[in-house]
Amino acid sequence: MSDTEAVSLTGLHKRFGANEVLKGVSLRAHTGEVIAVIGASGSGKSTLLRCIPLLEIPEAGEIAIGGETIRMRAAGKGRVPADAAQVNRLRSNLGFVFQSFNLWAHMTVLQNVIEAPVHVQGRPKAEAIAEAEALLEKVGMADKRDAYPAHLSGGQQQRAAIARALAMRPRALLFDEPTSALDPELVSEVLRVIRALAAEGRTMLIVTHEMAFAADVASRAIFLHDGRIEEEGPPAQVFSDPQTERCRQFVMRHLNR
Amino acid sequence: MDTVFLAETMGKLLAGLPLTIELAIISISAGAVLATILALFRATSPIAEAIVRGYVFTLRGTPLLLQIFLIYYGLGQFAEVRHSILWPFLRQPYWCAILALTINTSAYGSEIIRGGLQSVPAGAIEAGRAAGMSRLLLTRRIVLPIAIRQALPAYGNEMIAMVKATSLASIVTLMEVSGIAYAIISETYRAIEVFLCAGAIYLTLNFLLTRGLAVLERWLNPHLVQSRT
C-alpha cells in the first residue's frame, strides 16, 4: 500500500509563537493525485505545504515521503530531525516550487536546473544536462538556458524553477502559490505548464488562489480553515456544492471576483 | 629637477618591490581564508560569536604598527613560544610581519564577509535546503558564492589598504619599498624625491589591483551585466 502513497501527513501541529497555524492536519497524497489546497490567507495552507520537506518543523505529527517516515527527536521545547541525512535524501525526492521562484541568481537557468541532480543526487553531469535541456524544452525555456534569472520575466523564472524541481525526478511536486508573485498577464503561461504536468499523471500538491484553475486541474480539493481541513472532496463538489458554510462563503467570494 | 637622482632612486626602490608584493599577496590571501572561516564560525553559536567579536574588536581597535611590534618583540618574551616548533618562523621579522598583516586583515575581512553572508537571500538558501543540500554543500555551492560576490567591492578596499599597510613591515627591518626609502633618505636627506618615487610605486600597484578587481567583478557577476540584445 505504502508505495502508492507519495506523501502522507498525520496530525500535524505547527505554531509560530502564540499563533497556532496548524491544529492537527492529516492528508494523504496518492501517486498520480493532483491535490489543490485552498483557503483564506492565514488559514495555514502554505505552512502545511512547507512542512512536507521540513522547511517548517511541526511540533507534533508525522510526515512520510513514499512510505518512509521522517524520524524526529525532541530538542529543547520543540523537535528536530533525528537524522539530517535522511531529511536531505527525502527532500531530494520532492520538487518544491516557491511563490517567489528562488532561483540562484549567480547561476544560469541551465546551471540552476542541473545543480541538485549533479551535486545532491550525484548524477553524471552530461546526463543531467541532457535531461535539463529536455525539461527546459518542456516548459518553453530552451532558448533561455544560458540566461541569468535577473534577465528573465517572473513567468520565465517560475517556469525555470519548475524545470529545476522536475530535474530531481521527484515523487511529488509541491507548488506554493506559484502564480501569486506574477503580473496578471504572466499567470497563464505558468498555469499552462502546471496543467501539462497534471495531464502527465504527476503527483502534485498545489496551494493556490486560482480557483478556476484549481477546479479544473485537481483530482481532489482541500479547503483549509483556521489550521484545520474544513472540507475535502472532488473539485466539482468543493467548488460547486460546498457542504460547509465557511467553504461556501470562501468559494462564493473568490469565484465572484 | 634632478632626474638622474630620481632614476637612481627609483631603481633602488624597485629592488624592494618583490618583497612588497610578496607581503601583500601572502597576507591578503591567508587573511581572506581566515576571514571566511571566522565569518562562518561566528554564525555557529553564541560562544563562537563572542570569541570572533572579541578578536575583531581587539584587532580593529589597535594600530597595526603596535600589533607588528607586539608580535616581533613580544612573542619572544615567552619561553613557551621560544621552545615551540613555531619559533624558527616567529624569530624572523619576515614571518612576524606576515602574521601581523594576516590577522589584522582577517579581522576587517571577516566583518566584510559577514555582511556578504547576511545579504544572501533567504529564498536562495531555502531552495537549496528544499533540494536536499547538506549544510556543507549549501555553504559551498550557494551561500559563499553569493556572499563573496556581494562582499567583493568592499573587500577591494581592504586589499588596497593592505598593499599600503605592507609599508609598516619596514619597522621590523624588512627592506621592502618603504624600508629602502627610509634607508636612502638617511643617506641623502632628500625625503621629498624619495617619497615621491615610493608613492608612485604604491600608486601603480594599487592601480593594477583596482583594474584586476574590476575584471574579477565583471567575470563573477555576468548576471548583473546588462544583456546586449
Summarize the structure in words.
- The complex is a heterodimer of chains A (257) and B (229).
- Chain A is built from nine helices and twelve strands.
- With 257 residues, chain A is an alpha/beta fold.
- In chain A, strand 11 and strand 12 (228-233) form a beta hairpin.
- Chain A is globular.
- Chain B has one domain (3-228): MetI-like fold, CATH 1.10.3720.10.
- Chain B is 79% helix and 0% strand.
- In chain B, helix 3 (46-61) crosses helix 7 and helix 9 packs antiparallel against helix 11.
- The longest helix of chain B has 31 residues, at 135-165.
- Chain A binds chain B through residues 53, 55, 84-85, 87-94, 96, 98, 100-106, 115-116, 119-121, 147-151, 164, 168, and chain B through 121, 123-124, 126-135, 137, 141-142, 145-146, 149, 220-224, 227.
Helix content of chain B: over 70%
Number of beta-strand segments of chain A: 12
Strand pairing plus helix content of chain B: what structural class?
mainly alpha
| Overall outline of chain B | flat
Q: What name does the CATH topology of chain B carry?
A: MetI-like fold
Low-confidence stretches of chain B: none
The CATH architecture of chain B would be Orthogonal Bundle
Terminal CA distance of chain B = 54 Å
Q: Would you count the extended β strands of chain B for me?
A: 0
